[in-house]
């Protein structure tokens, strides 16, 4: 079968398809096109061309939202005067009709009772039960003489004077003959319902603003899960919204946010602007979707304007901040998840660097406060900051999203990047980094009695008062430190500190690598998000450790950085001082998860209460809920 692709407005294309399904009075053409299983490509629009050959377009009365209709004036071959064909909102078309054409072609008066029957039994059923967009069709053959003989834009007579002002269009579209109703199905994509459910779970409210009639809009919104089946859902037409006071409009939109959904039908572009403005005054971060020229002001007014890449106009795309190349709502949800992940990764990057830098500053502070020799030299600190810290920090940008990233409530626009709790975590981790770096330095001098290098230890008092070493003389008996000058007590703490300094530098590097693994998730445990979830981070950590081992075991580089090789016993000691940083952060992540879980639970409880209230309303239970 030939593949059909529309050009132009979807509604116009759907009506042309309807014409191809109905057929025409030409029986031979009907047999060829309607009774054949496979219609040839040249016959795809056979009936549209048939009807087009019977009449010539004279003028088009373009659609306006005020009158909710459009019409075309044509010159039919079998009539001397022009004919007006109208389509528009059923309630509007019915209101302007005075007669109705019966199936046999006869015309009868159309009274108010029959109009109500048509609307109640057909329009409401099509729109409400079947979720169809409905159009009313009508015709007018007895036109104003100025229009009846109008020949088009080349007509120099005064015949077309009534059509020069669009305000007169509604005057022309009066005393119509009702022809029938057309139901248009615009089914939501299968992925829309799961996407909207994801929005609701993430605390994002979805409000539907459409030009469709209320029944169609409500049916589609219920099918998508934007509103619940209960009668208590927020659903207003544009006219009803206009009749509300400013405070009532604010209350309605606040209720939409509380219930995470609402429907506004039969709206105009200005309604979108008003809704966006009120939502922003309520402190909500607002994203608006649109595709038409009239949507541009609302797209511009929203925090995030989202235009359709396929069906959207260039004006809408220019006014928007983001363009959906596939016109798919689920892409917006994916973008939200990606945005939350990027924000989390940015916080992880900052958390890693700040806590590591606090640790380096803390180690210098503790060294000065205790009065012990410098555990780290300036060149060693530069090496850590410029070489070993860089790759893991960069790799944190590739962290996968947290498992609950789309279950957390949205952060407020005024939320601080670094909260009090986050800064406290920075300080705790930083303090431990500083303590571990200085602690292993002290441990080597004071407590590491069974070391393979055979060095003798000193007391903590001697280490803290090493600046008095010149007065100790022969009473100082510690020795066997690499680089120490025999008999020189001061060289024990200066030239002889190479091994201790190597310990401090290695602990600082390893502990910062563990800290990078902590930054995989703000609150997620490493048991839930193991390091291999981000292979780039694993590669970066191995790279930094590898570079560090090069300066330890390559003699030339070791002499530049003032370090010495470490054996198995030494590496075990390094891990003993470094690994607790993971345990400390896991404890703080546990407290963080408790806070987040309470926020999620509170959001879900609120949603459950709203659903319960709607179920009560739907079941007819009017008892007041406690």
TrEMBL record:
Keywords: ATP-binding, Ion transport, Membrane, Nucleotide-binding, Translocase, Transmembrane, Transmembrane helix, Transport
GO CC annotation terms, alphabetical: membrane
Family classification: Belongs to the cation transport ATPase (P-type) (TC 3.A.3) family.
Subcellular location field: Membrane
Membrane topology: Multi-pass membrane protein
Any one GO BP annotation for this protein: monoatomic ion transport
InterPro entries linked: ATPase_P-typ_cation-transptr_C, ATPase_P-typ_cyto_dom_N, ATPase_P-typ_TM_dom_sf, HAD-like_sf, HAD_sf, P_typ_ATPase
Name of one Pfam family that matches: Cation_ATPase
Residues annotated as domain Cation-transporting P-type ATPase C-terminal: 375-591
Organism: Perkinsus olseni
Protein name: Cation-transporting P-type ATPase C-terminal domain-containing protein
Gene3D superfamilies in the record: Calcium-transporting ATPase, cytoplasmic domain N, Calcium-transporting ATPase, transmembrane domain, HAD superfamily/HAD-like
Chain segments annotated as transmembrane: 423-446, 536-556, 568-584
Single GO molecular function: ATP binding
């Amino acid at each position: 079968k030939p593949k059909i692709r529309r050009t132009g407005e979807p509604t116009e294309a759907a009506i042309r398809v309807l014409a191809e399904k109905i057929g025409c009075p030409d029986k031979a053409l009907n047999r060829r096109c309607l009774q054949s299983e496979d219609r040839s490509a040249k016959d795809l629009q056979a009936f549209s061309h048939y009807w087009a050959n019977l009449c010539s377009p004279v003028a088009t009365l373009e659609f306006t939202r005020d009158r909710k209709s459009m019409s075309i004036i044509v010159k039919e071959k079998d009539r001397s005067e022009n004919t007006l064909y109208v389509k528009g909102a059923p309630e509007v078309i019915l209101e302007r009709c005075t007669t109705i054409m019966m199936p046999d072609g006869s015309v009868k008066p159309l009274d108010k009772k029959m109009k109500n029957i048509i609307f109640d039994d057909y329009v409401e059923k099509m729109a409400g039960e079947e979720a169809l967009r409905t159009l009313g069709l009508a015709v007018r053959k007895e036109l104003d003489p100025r229009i009846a003989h109008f020949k088009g834009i080349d007509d120099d007579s005064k015949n077309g004077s009534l059509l020069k002002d669009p305000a007169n269009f509604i005057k022309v579209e009066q005393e119509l003959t009702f022809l029938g109703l057309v139901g248009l199905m615009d089914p939501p994509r299968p992925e829309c319902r799961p996407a909207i459910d994801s929005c609701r779970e993430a605390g994002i409210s979805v409000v539907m603003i459409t030009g469709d009639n209320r029944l169609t809009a409500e049916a589609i919104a219920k099918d998508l899960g934007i509103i619940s089946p209960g009668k208590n859902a927020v659903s207003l037409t544009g006219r009803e919204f206009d009749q509300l006071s400013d405070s009532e409009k604010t209350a309605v939109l606040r209720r939409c946010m509380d219930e995470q959904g609402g429907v506004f039908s039969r709206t105009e572009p200005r309604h979108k602007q008003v809704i966006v403005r009120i939502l922003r005054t309520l402190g909500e971060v607002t994203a608006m979707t649109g595709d038409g020229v009239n949507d541009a002001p609302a797209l511009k007014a929203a925090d995030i304007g989202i235009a359709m890449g396929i069906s959207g106009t260039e004006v809408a795309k220019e006014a928007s901040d983001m363009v959906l190349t596939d016109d798919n709502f689920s892409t917006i949800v994916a973008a939200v998840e990606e945005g939350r992940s990027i924000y989390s990764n940015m916080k992880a990057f900052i958390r890693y660097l700040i806590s590591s830098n606090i640790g380096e500053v803390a180690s210098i502070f503790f060294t000065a406060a205790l009065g012990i020799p410098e555990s780290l030299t300036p060149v060693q600190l530069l090496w850590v900051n410029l070489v070993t810290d860089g790759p893991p920090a960069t790799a944190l940008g590739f962290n996968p999203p947290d498992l609950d990233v789309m279950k957390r409530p949205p952060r407020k626009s005024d939320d601080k990047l670094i909260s009090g709790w986050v800064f406290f975590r920075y300080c705790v981790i930083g303090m431990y980094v500083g303590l571990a770096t200085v602690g292993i330095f002290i441990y080597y001098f004071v407590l590491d009695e069974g070391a393979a290098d055979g060095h003798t230890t000193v007391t903590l008092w001697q280490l803290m008062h090493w600046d008095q070493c010149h007065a100790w003389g022969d009473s100082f008996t510690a020795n066997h430190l690499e680089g120490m000058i025999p008999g020189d007590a001061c060289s024990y703490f200066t030239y002889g500190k190479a091994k201790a300094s190597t310990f401090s530098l290695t602990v600082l590097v390893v502990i910062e690598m563990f800290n990078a693994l902590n930054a995989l998730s703000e609150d997620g445990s490493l048991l839930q998000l193991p390091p291999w979830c981000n292979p780039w981070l694993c590669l970066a950590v191995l790279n930094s450790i590898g570079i560090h081992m090069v300066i330890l075991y390559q003699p030339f580089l070791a002499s530049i950085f003032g370090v010495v090789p470490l054996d198995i016993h030494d590496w075990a000691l390094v891990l003993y001082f470094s690994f607790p940083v993971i345990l400390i952060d896991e404890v703080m992540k546990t407290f963080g998860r408790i806070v987040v879980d309470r926020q999620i639970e509170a959001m879900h409880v609120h949603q459950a209460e709203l659903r319960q209230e709607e179920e009560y309303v739907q079941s007819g239970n009017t008892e007041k809920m406690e």
